[in-house]
User: Fold this.
Amino acid sequence: MAIEMTVSSPHQSSVAWQGPLLIGTDTGGTFTDCAIAGPHGLVIGKALSTPGRLWHGIVAAIEDAARDIGGLDDVLARTSVLAHGTTAMLNATLTGAGATVGILTTAGFEDTLSIGRVHQKVAGLAEWERTDLAKLNKSALFRDKNLIEGIRERIDAAGDIVKPVDVEEVRLAAQRLRDQGVTAFAVNFLWSCVNPANEQAAARVIAEVIPGARITCSSDLSTMVGEYERFATCALNAYIGGIADSYLDALDGELRRRGFAGRILMTRAWGDLERVEQVGRNAVPSLFSGPIGGVVGARALTTDAPDELPLLLCADLGGTSLDVTVIHDGNVQWNQHPVIERLNVAVPTFEIASIGTGGGSMASFDQELGLIHVGPRSAGGDPGPACYQRGGAEPTLTDAALVAGWLPPNSRMPNGIALSVSHARAALERAIAGPAGMTAKSAAAAVLRIASAQMADLIRKACIERSVDPRRAVPLVYGGAGAQYAGAFCGELGVTRFLVPELASAFSAYGMLGAREGGVKTRSIHATLPVEANWLNDVYRQMEEEMRVELEREDGKGIRFERFAELRYNQQAKELRIPVHEDVDLGAAFTQAYERRYGVGASDANNLIELTAAVTRAARPIAADNPMRQRAGDRDGGENGLGHTVLLWIDGVEYDAEVATFAAAREPAGVAGPAIVTGNYTSVVIPPGWTARWRGDINLLEVRDERRN
Assistant:
């Protein structure tokens, strides 16, 4: 069954919206998006993000969405669940805004984080960043050796206590760290993933010495073997845990003050939602919550239309970055040890490739080299692009799009922003056109061409690294700016069609409404295939029972379990996560996944396959009916088809392009390019020779190159 999003009038009576509501919110670097689902439809809202007081932007986005369905306070009073994703904790980490962390670790292993893996200097860096050798350094976090105390304790690999914790030694270490201004403690001992007793004993001593201290034990976060990744995760959690609590407490307080009585759930790295009470204790999985909602929504589309969308390419282009994810036959590839500030963490998440090119990316001209650069610096929401008339002076990708006609000047913007073509043109003339000796439109075209090429390069790289031909993939473009540039980067890639959700601008917030509440439990295993099926089933059943108890503390209805196995070839460093179902042949499934990931012929039939971990996911829906099967109202209002025209500059040629609503694309003829389809804060640029038609069977706008189909 295809996802249905029942259209509701943007100005319908609030009476039609009586009943329980769900809210999804996504806070990005430039905008905060909101989606509200009720019994009779779905609406979206948008507001500028407000750094330092992010909850203000969240409330403003909800208010924007709620203005036609009863108002902010009424909507909040009727909301049962608010699902939230944000880059707030990630930004705090990247800007060094975390706590002063004191670390207690096994004596002799104080340098684990500073030594790191062999690739730590380049971990997480783009190829162009790796070439600047003078700037390659290891992580700047947790390098002060005065804040790392070695404790003489030891647990062996079997979990036996060889040397218990010396209470007095821990007490003195905690006092020394406290005297140096430490506000959060990270306790990471060897083999605590097998037996946490020594870590727990040390934590009790710290709590006695420093009442109220924030203490993180690595065994509370990960039971996986891998000292370095567990150590890094523990230290990062201590670093941002307080920020997470403060941020979520402020959000909760603001919403409660306005009458909200429901639950706030946070998007986690694995695509599920968890109660905010758990986030402060284990904050690292929420570092990745920003782009996760869109991937969850995209995966739902492939589940409902598996034959139509066997190879989906998620392209999430917002104000700050482009995030790309590949979904193959409904399966998202996993990154087992993602990187934060050059540190690998033990929090598996969706494999997402990113580049600092978005609508707010600044453009500049290098007079010495005669080159135009786009990104990675971003104007964000404050001051934002020059065309926002909020004090921004440097030209951005949005300014170039406005001057080139890719963004209609009368496009509806959040916070009452009126787009100014003259401000955008002046910024381009001052920074690029004047120094380069070209017109403002030529400068805009050059900026757009460079940005589109950067986007195409990222997508090409993401596909090739996953053994996927980008020409076979179908891009699903979303985010506030995605649909403006899709035709351009698809042309660069040789891709002949792309898909646009009607709620593209707030698709990540919308996708959170289809997420499930739950969690993941992982258990380290060291076995070589084949393994005895009953033994492995017993491992899964034990984990499932533990998770059932945790979820049933509130409500045990609708819990569904999924099983995964992490497998690798003997002596290889990286595992693949394989779905486990009844009668699965783990060896065959791993071989198939390996060749899909690394290329046909890459598997090794003569090598042993190791089972390194069993993974169980437990989740339940947040609503009885899937809110993603509601349909969106067009906040731009137009049930009529084609409207006015704009001058659209593409590949050095200026066209008279008609501006149409999504309603026009529902007509049999569709909308032929050059044109722009607009609605719900989204502008879809249709290049010459392309046609946009609404696909009712999959409920997406399909834009196709008619010349090559």
Remarks:
- The first strand starts at residue 21 and ends at 27.
